[in-house]
């Protein structure tokens, strides 16, 4: 009598099983970001290759601080764009990545009032803040920002970006059709 637990596989079945196991292992490897291509690793590599913030702000180059987190999907999505811009402007603009989960950067997080990530703080060549960008930006937008910093021009206008006057006060042009009325603490009654 044959035992049902002792089923022998034919040679061809063993080959198919081996191939299926190999394909599944490769798929899982790539899914987990194999070969160092995932954005979380890119963020960490960029952060490790960044200048210290005080060096970047005092070396005569425009500087971009990116406040990010490893778990932030928008930050991970933006990582390849940041890497491209860093390579394109490598000797002209400094890009400094600061992980908000690292207590080492807590003073800068508080100083620049980081309330959302990714947040880009944009500095001129003298280390004076020119603006701030919060949220996901594509490579074209980041390139426009970099060009405006490099050419000492006003920052481009698109959602999530604020021009600052150097004292962290947001400035934006008023539209002429806005009606301004006097508001007092008792206006609600």
UniProtKB/TrEMBL annotation:
Spans through the membrane: 12-31
Annotated ranges, domain Thioredoxin: 37-151
InterPro entries membership: Thioredoxin-like_sf, Thioredoxin_domain, TxlA/HCF164
Alphabetical list of Pfam families matching this protein: Thioredoxin
Keyword set, alphabetical order: Membrane, Transmembrane, Transmembrane helix
Top-level lineage group: Bacteria
Coiled-coil region list: none
MF GO annotations: oxidoreductase activity, acting on a sulfur group of donors, disulfide as acceptor
Record-linked PANTHER family: THIOREDOXIN-LIKE PROTEIN HCF164, CHLOROPLASTIC
Name listed for the protein in its UniProt record: Thioredoxin family protein
Organism, scientific name: Prochlorococcus marinus (strain SARG / CCMP1375 / SS120)
């Amino acid at each position: 009598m044959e035992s049902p637990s002792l089923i022998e596989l034919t040679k061809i079945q063993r080959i198919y099983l081996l191939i299926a196991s190999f394909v599944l292992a490769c798929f899982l490897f790539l899914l987990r970001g194999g070969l160092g291509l995932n954005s979380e690793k890119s963020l960490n590599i960029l952060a490790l290759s960044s200048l210290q913030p005080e060096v970047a702000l005092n070396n005569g180059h425009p500087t971009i601080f990116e406040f990010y987190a490893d778990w932030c999907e928008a930050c991970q999505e933006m990582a390849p764009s940041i890497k491209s811009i860093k390579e394109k402007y490598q000797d002209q603009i400094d890009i400094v990545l600061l992980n908000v989960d690292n207590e080492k950067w807590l003073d800068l997080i508080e100083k620049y009032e980081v309330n959302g990530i990714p947040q880009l703080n944009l500095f001129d060549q003298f280390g004076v803040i020119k603006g701030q960008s919060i949220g996901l930006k594509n490579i074209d937008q980041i390139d426009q920002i970099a060009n405006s910093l490099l050419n000492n021009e006003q920052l481009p206008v698109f959602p999530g970006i604020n021009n600052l006057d150097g004292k962290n006060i947001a400035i934006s042009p008023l539209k002429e059709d806005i009606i301004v009325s006097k508001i007092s603490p008792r206006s609600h009654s």
